[in-house]
Amino acid sequence: QKEVEQDPGPLSVPEGAIVSLNCTYSNSAFQYFMWYRQYSRKGPELLMYTYSSGNKEDGRFTAQVDKSSKYISLFIRDSQPSDSATYLCAPRQGAQKLVFGQGTRLTINP
Amino acid sequence: EPEVTQTPSHQVTQMGQEVILRCVPISNHLYFYWYRQILGQKVEFLVSFYNNEISEKSEIFDDQFSVERPDGSNFTLKIRSTKLEDSAMYFCACLRTGGSTDTQYFGPGTRLTVL
């Protein structure tokens, strides 16, 4: 079983839609759950993160972690064409390596 | 805002040649990492470095790879004898303390092309 699984998409939605991006993971030792955004041929850019279970909101973005089911979600409200990118979930344990999912390629159509 | 820088942005080399990829992490960060991403694939961990030594390395990080922090500001990845399959984007990242409010920051990457 892969440590982190993420549907690679592609996912295409109209502008203004609510987007739901998800990952599952197998390592119960993960404590920190990151979401990075990556544009083509660029480095991952931190979007938001949560520590342990729960929700965290930042503007139009909400990150959610359910450690009991090992499920990570990112919701984007009122999606904009500028949100078009690849979204990477990346949990980690302590200061250890990030373990990336495959990334979901998202396109927001005007 | 402090950022991670990497040089060169693109390196083309012949198979069998040595390459050194350079990174300047954020100045007060203590943990350093190299990741790579083969085109169309996921970002993969290579190595982590803390307190002037390797703290973890992946199966990819074999004897052909080495890392150094030669002068307290630069962090380098050396590939001794490049192979075609080393062609990828290489990202440097750093982390300040590893605590609950801490996150890894990535550089823009070096695109390595091995011919």
What does this structure look like?
- The complex is a heterodimer of chains A (110) and B (115).
- Chain A has strands at 4-6, 11-14, 19-25, 32-38, 45-51, 54-58, 61-66, 71-76, 85-92, 104-109.
- Chain A starts with a strand and ends with a strand.
- In chain A, a hairpin with a 2-residue loop joins strand 6 (54-58) and strand 7.
- Chain A has 110 residues and is mostly beta strands.
- Chain B has strands spanning 5-7, 10-13, 19-24, 31-37, 44-50, 53-57, 65-68, 75-79, 88-95, 105-106, 110-114.
- In chain B, strands 2, 4, 5, 6, 9, 10 and 11 form a 7-stranded mixed sheet that branches.
- Chain B is globular.
- The relative contact order of chain B is 0.34.
- Chain A binds chain B through residues 31-32, 34, 36, 41-46, 49, 51, 88, 90, 92, 94-103, and chain B through 4, 31, 33, 35, 41-45, 48, 50, 56, 58, 89, 91, 93, 95, 97-98, 100-109, 111.
Residues in β-strands, percent of chain A: over 45%
Annotation field: number of helices of chain A: 0
Structural class by sheet pairing and helices of chain A: mainly beta
Distance between the termini of chain B: 37 Å
Share of helix of chain B, binned: under 10%
Point out poorly predicted stretches of chain A: none
Which structural category fits the helices and strands of chain B?
mainly beta
The helix/strand order of chain A is EEEEEEEEEE
Largest sheet report of chain B: 7 strands, mixed
Shape of chain B: globular
CA gyration radius of chain B, whole angstroms: 13 Å
